[in-house]
# Entry
Amino acid sequence: MGAVVGIVANPVRADEPMSPRSPIEYRDAAPEVRAVFDDIKRTRQVDDVNNFWKYLAHDPRTLKRTWESVKEIMTAGALDALTKEMIYLAVSVTNGCAYCIASHNAAARKAGMTEAMFGELMAVVGMANETNRLANGYRVPVDPAFEA
Amino acid sequence: MGAVVGIVANPVRADEPMSPRSPIEYRDAAPEVRAVFDDIKRTRQVDDVNNFWKYLAHDPRTLKRTWESVKEIMTAGALDALTKEMIYLAVSVTNGCAYCIASHNAAARKAGMTEAMFGELMAVVGMANETNRLANGYRVPVDPAFEA
Amino acid sequence: MGAVVGIVANPVRADEPMSPRSPIEYRDAAPEVRAVFDDIKRTRQVDDVNNFWKYLAHDPRTLKRTWESVKEIMTAGALDALTKEMIYLAVSVTNGCAYCIASHNAAARKAGMTEAMFGELMAVVGMANETNRLANGYRVPVDPAFEA
Amino acid sequence: MGAVVGIVANPVRADEPMSPRSPIEYRDAAPEVRAVFDDIKRTRQVDDVNNFWKYLAHDPRTLKRTWESVKEIMTAGALDALTKEMIYLAVSVTNGCAYCIASHNAAARKAGMTEAMFGELMAVVGMANETNRLANGYRVPVDPAFEA
Amino acid sequence: MGAVVGIVANPVRADEPMSPRSPIEYRDAAPEVRAVFDDIKRTRQVDDVNNFWKYLAHDPRTLKRTWESVKEIMTAGALDALTKEMIYLAVSVTNGCAYCIASHNAAARKAGMTEAMFGELMAVVGMANETNRLANGYRVPVDPAFEA
Amino acid sequence: MGAVVGIVANPVRADEPMSPRSPIEYRDAAPEVRAVFDDIKRTRQVDDVNNFWKYLAHDPRTLKRTWESVKEIMTAGALDALTKEMIYLAVSVTNGCAYCIASHNAAARKAGMTEAMFGELMAVVGMANETNRLANGYRVPVDPAFEA
# Structure
């Protein structure tokens, strides 16, 4: 880990800007990043990739592995693509991930989620989060019928 | 709040048992609890209710409100009952609620979830939990296309 | 689930706006939504409802059920209304729900929470979140005295 | 960080036991640990400390800092000790920390929490966890009245 | 989604056992599962794989993808393997995942984590979970110096 | 708890501003707050403290206790300061605390985290959050080797 430093080391002035990461656009991307961007655009038939991929591009290995996993997982199989997008949204809402809620809300709509389906999805997510805590708080033991 | 006490007040000996709650069985239940138990058994066509309801029975108002909400929410509507159970399971897995994972795994299977569907459900839940953190950590701003 | 589509289906251009939901104002609301809005305004003696209710209005059933549950739960009973608002805030802070922190901070202040009470509330919430992880990490088994 | 090793280094046989930590009892404790245990027993008027402290004793500095923080925070101030215990329990239930739920359930009861108060506490915790997700999912913006 | 059923459909008797999944042992595993198990055993130089992999074996695709990702990610690179295991443990402790805490505690020790390092790791994890909530609750805006 | 009020009590008009807290600057701070600010500036060799401390200044006891804990915990010991900052960041990313992600990203960079190290940190955090849920969902029991 090389020259590791203590809490008082490497001081920077409070007014010294620490630029956060910025998105990497196609025109500025390295070849291995462009290859992933191209595959995303081809697979999803879009003209540009979302910010998520432009930020992951800072780490081409994570970009590649994540896209390949997403592509494998989100393709229709035993579950259709819409159901998968709604499950994705349910998790993102539970975790409170603002970006993921916005992007998977859009993805679920694109896959066919109607306003009525969204309303029921949210009702289930809310109820599950409530009963999860009721089960925790009352310390409910798992029924033997679920364990045998 | 009546006789409220400080941190050193009301001492109990470390070896004095503090019995946790126990399930309330039908035979010991008050009439308003029995009414809810009866409705659960009738609706679900089961001989007995799960531990969750037997523990909530300590608070008949919460028991009644929770059951009525669950019954309203989990009935097939714009989403079928199986999809709802899988969303419930996805939330419970994300929160790590052991009881809820066990009971809704069983409920989802009863509603038709095959092993292949469970496998894909878990793959989506895992991936969503991963990308939620990648989006957080890279501080990805929401794309204008999701906001306009 | 009708015409369910795959990951490559239903393409939209990346620059095609996906309008997020907007609040439903009283003047645009359906009768069953207005009935709930009226009850909120009457119960809370306010001139307008918060954004939370205007968004839930997209799903009138969830709006109605949620308001009726909140009204039942948040009314003073064995716990006074201020204590309930502080517990609500403690949960919202733990979950990191920005909207809920803002609204229940306001609600708790309205119910009588002073700055000193808020300070102690936050200290407890912070400490609980810390010791929850110490207990997890050290894998502390539950004392027999809490189980007997 | 000394002799840091790769993923294949330091192999142990799968059947080689990796003993988890065990509680440190008073009789085996170092003087600085005994000093903290003595203060806990005196402050809480108990004959022995809970498992939580016996496990933290593996790191005397964390033991001391945590106990001193808990003692400072949990003493009655602008909030009474019972309210503080219930807030602690609300957080622990939300996080699903089994040890903390068990121990703070006991602590809250000792401080005066009745079964009716527990029931209302759980109802609020459940509702807050539900509405936190509804606010997330509907992407409700904070009302100007909460920000001005 | 085939024969999707409603909440009252497919009733099972409450006393009908719903066997949970069981681990898939090497001797019973399909060839593609054995291939992954062999690679885990070779890479980690162990005689048998952990339960985690034996359960994932119910879904060979997830087993394969997860192992390949773990192998790629957990190998020493810009961060050494010990640091990676401690970060893994920090996340698992924060999420309260009992299995992951147990297994990555063991993995981190195997990679060289001493009791003193574990103690400091836990202190940081506890403190971060505390200050995360203080920042949430006080609604602290991000300093311009972190954004410019 | 003094004059505790019900849900309909203490009405304020919806358009009545409820000012959120604002940062307390050095020039406006009480002596005990200034003493902490001075120690932070001296220890970290910065000209001003971050917003986090300016908001905690609303509760001088929490400000003092939190700073003293952070100073004790984050100083290099068995773990170097950089490793500690990365663990802090891993927890903050898992919890989705926007302020903490921004500030500890900056702190970790200041302590020597390169872009490559950040990339691997994020990969581990993402993977841990994924496998935590796979372990939960498959209900994987802890291996005897981790318990003996």
Summary: Residues 1-17 of chain C have pLDDT under 50 and may be disordered. Chain C touches chain D through 63 residues (CB under 8 Å). The CA atoms of residues 3 and 9 of chain C lie 11 Å apart.
